[in-house]
Design a protein that fits this description.
Elements (H helix, E strand, L loop, with lengths): L12 E4 L2 E4 H23 L6 H24 L2 H4 L18 H19 L3 H19 L1 H6 L13 E3 L9 E3 L2 H23 L5 H20 L6 E2 L2 E2 H23 L11 H43 L1
Antiparallel strand pairs: 1-2, 3-4, 5-6
Length: 315
Amino acid sequence: MELAYIPSPSRGVIHLGPIPLRGYAFCIIIGVFVAVWLGNKRWIARGGRVGTVADIAVWAVPFGLLGGRLYHVITDYELYFSEGRDWVDAFKIWEGGLGIWGAIALGAVGAWIGCRRRGIPLPAWADALAPGIALAQAIGRWGNWFNQELYGKPTDLPWALHITSSTDGRVPGYYHPTFLYESLWCVGVALLVIWADRRFKLGHGRAFALYVAAYCTGRGWIEYMRIDDAHHILGVRLNVWTAIVVFVLAVTYFVLSAKKRPGREEVVEPGADAVDGEAEEGEKADGVEKSEAGSGEAEAESREVTDEAESAKKT
């Protein structure tokens, strides 16, 4: 008898009439909101305007979803284009299947477009978003739990994940909850980036590079535990090779950026200080006008009292 384990949901979708509510989609949506919320707070703290992060996210999120889906479909093309498969399923993003590598790559293109339209340096925006993206990944991984997918090797540990579905070649049993391992790792990455950014005043994209390097470190060993079908190169899973390459690129960028542009950007959003200054001046002007109006009313009232007193004396 198994005394302890992580149960899997009996189903990953609930139908509200004709409308399907999918756990995977909810995890992605909640993750996006958390990333934008935290990114906005960090952006404002760096001297940016309220709402800028959300405006640029309007470009980054759709590009990121498209990139994540493209990476998944390309690297697992046999799931959609092999014999007996329906290629239309490649467009069913709500059923799961997003590659973080493609999501970050194409999401960066969308963010670059949004930043360019606002005259904002992309590295500064990426630094503000870095820990939020890690938290979004931590939340998004729970979508794999709803779909009973991407689990690890069999185990008898008390935190084993109980897989009950037998569809798509699954074998019911108890497995390593790699979704949980990666979720916790991403939370740790977010905390690491926030701490390092406060401690060392990271700028010019180095906070984002730290997030990428730290995530790749964890993804590498977690990927080794997974038993789902994957392409291999020299006996190593494709995503492990991708993590190694991206890790090297992130560390290289971090080192070169620190030498070329030490410190942090003094201005992350041109004109933000001027707008804030005008707002403060407007508030001060309103306060002065109100105080002047109040003093004028007080003087008028005192004159009325004086006039009444004089008229009373005469009578």
